[in-house]
Amino acid sequence: MVDIHSHILPGWDDGSRSMAESLEMLRIAADSGTTDIVATPHANSEFPFQPEVVNRIFAELQEAAIGIVKVHLGCDFHVQFENVQDALQNPTKYTINHGPYLMVELPEVMNLPVIRDILSRLQNVGIVPVITHPERNTHLQGLRDSAELARWVDEGTLLQVTGQSLLGRFGNLAQRSAAGLMKHDLVHFVASDAHDTKDRTPRLAEAFVWVQSHYGRLRAERLFTLNPAAAVAGSSLERVYAGEEQDQARKWWAFWK
Predict the structure, then answer these.
(1) Is the pLDDT of residue 237 over 70?
(2) Which domains does the chain have, with CATH numbers?
(3) Separation of alpha carbons 202 and 31, rounded Å
(4) Which is nearest to 152 in space by CA: 100, 193, 117?
(5) DSSP class per residue in 47-58
(6) CA distance 79 to 62
(7) CA distance 22 to 123
(8) DSSP strand E in 135-244: where?
(9) Whole-number Å distance between alpha carbons of 66 and 142
(10) Which of 29, 116, 192, 222 makes the best surface tag, with the fewest CB within 10 Å?
């Protein structure tokens, strides 16, 4: 499996507190079947993204992780005015491996047309927005906003659900929302959003089993391996994404509009 959302950089944000904890998280990921993991430190007002420092810490972690898993670098990009303006001027600054895919965290309070415009502007400079854990965003939970998400998917935005959401870790509402997005084929990635070794761990095996049991092996492989591997490589999902999910998403949006 390939995990494109984790907070494994030691001592940087609200994730791992030390190199020892980071390495233990990586061992947990490897034992669960993960071969590649993307470090996605926050980029927000509380944890400003400082490339020089992030790159140094990442290089240290990458070297220490040799023989455990392959570690890649991205960012948990919060939609804030300064961030968006900077990303528009520097499209690969925050993306996974400096490719096209950007992990985008939306605010809890938002104006949907404004967000849609921001996503469009990011796409216009070559960025592929990947909305992180929409099932946990209180503004996006609910049937009407799910239809809005379907519209975004139809326009090129991708969605990433947290594996533990499918298993109930974030409550019934998030679990139902995640299951609904899965049911209507609006999910492109399942990732861990790991923060520690005890509670929010990088274990994805149980979520993989859940998806496989409900939607089959091929769907699970797409969401946990093929699609995230394409994001890490900077390749188009069209190479591995057969298209029926997006076709069904379009039908879902056509039904609701």
Answers:
(1) yes
(2) 2-256 (3.20.20.140)
(3) 10
(4) 117
(5) S---HHHHHHHH
(6) 27
(7) 33
(8) 158-162, 189-191
(9) 43
(10) 116
The side-by-side arrangement of strands in the sheet containing 36-39 is 2-6, 36-39, 70-73
What mean pLDDT is predicted for residues 11-33?
97
Q: Which residue has the tokens 């797409």?
A: 222
Taking residues 21-49, what's their average pLDDT?
A: 96
Q: How far apart are CA 79 and CA 237, in angstroms?
A: 24
Report residue 249's pLDDT band, with 50, 70 and 90 as the boundaries: very low
Tokens linked to 13: 């944000």
**Looking at residue 147, what is its pLDDT?**
80
User: How far, in Å, CA of 164 to CA of 237, rounded?
Assistant: 24
pLDDT tens digits for range 161-211: 999 999 999 999 999 999 999 999 999 999 999 999 999 999 999 999 999
The continuous run of DSSP H or E covering 6 comes out as strand 2-6
Short-list 131, 57, 128, 53, CA closest to 87: 128
Provide the phi-psi class of 126: left if phi over 0, else alpha when psi is between -120 and 50, else beta.
left
Cβ neighbours of 191 (radius 10 Å): 30
